[in-house]
Structure prediction request, 123 residues.
Amino acid sequence: MKLHRDPVDGLRITARGSGWIKIGEKRYEGPVWIDKQNCKLLDQPIAKLEDFTTQIIKEVIAARPEIVLFGSGRVFAFAPVDIRAELSDAGIGVEAMDTAAACRTFNILVAEGRDVVALLTHG
Prediction:
């Protein structure tokens, strides 16, 4: 039997470290928004999940992903109740985990063809 690697459509997280994340060969320093097609640095300091602004959450809702992954840095933290409620009311699933786990989960969900947004801090 010959095995072939399936091509993955979309972005993949290839590495991460303290305060940075690598998408393909491009390194981003600071908190990021990543979905299957885009990665962008967030223009405000975000050290913990409570720092995600209403504007960012509105942009997430407008993007209509199936699920949002919150990466809370090196230590696990729950997403704030008001953010979880707002996303849930919009029919969007929410998962919070440390950033390393969020990166791994993002890659798995993209490989499955899922519509996912990851909001990653490095706090």
In short: The chain has a mean pLDDT of 86. The two ends are 46 Å apart (CA to CA). The beta strands are 13-17, 20-23, 26-29, 32-34, 39-41, 67-72, 93-97, 116-121.
